[in-house]
TrEMBL record:
Subcellular localization(s) per the UniProt record: Mitochondrion inner membrane
UniProt keyword Mitochondrion present: yes
A GO BP entry: signal peptide processing
Name of the protein in its database record: Mitochondrial inner membrane protease subunit
Keywords of this entry: Hydrolase, Membrane, Mitochondrion, Mitochondrion inner membrane, Protease
InterPro entries according to UniProt: LexA/Signal_pep-like_sf (IPR036286), Pept_S26A_signal_pept_1 (IPR000223), Peptidase_S26 (IPR019533)
The keyword Mitochondrion appears for this protein: yes
GO cellular component, one term: mitochondrial inner membrane
EC number: 3.4.21.-
Signal peptide from the UniProt entry: none
Organism whose genome encodes this protein: Pelagomonas calceolata
GO MF annotation terms: serine-type endopeptidase activity
Length: 117
């Protein structure tokens, strides 16, 4: 992420080149740019529980409006058509502190997003 006018803040939508680790996780994706929402910034504490829920600094993260769009029947049908039964693995992450100069990003459609989790 290269900020042009200010540092990214929680809730901002960011566009970035995929780092090597993200490319490995996303397999054969031909995507060159990724679009995600900033969930935490440097110094924030992030935890992912067993069911994929995210808390930042001890408080549950509110789902953005984009998550609700993904729950619409039309969106669910399209996701199933494109992805079949594929779903993002739900892996619990012990609390971590976002390093200086970094942000923790999440996709709006959590069930299928490849993101910081």
């Amino acid at each position: 992420v290269t900020p042009r006018f200010r540092s990214p803040a929680v809730g901002d939508v960011v566009v970035f080149d995929a780092p090597a680790a993200l490319k490995r996780v996303s397999g054969n994706s031909k995507a060159q740019l990724y679009v995600k929402r900033v969930a935490a910034v440097a110094g924030d504490r992030v935890r992912v529980d067993d069911d994929g829920g995210v808390s930042v600094n001890g408080a549950p993260r509110r789902s953005p409006a984009g998550d609700r769009v993904c729950d619409l029947p039309e969106a669910r049908a399209e996701l199933k058509r494109v992805l079949g039964d594929a779903r993002r693995s739900k892996i619990a992450v012990e609390e971590l502190s976002v390093p200086r100069g970094s942000v923790y990003v999440l996709g709006d459609c959590a069930d299928v997003s490849v993101d910081s989790r």
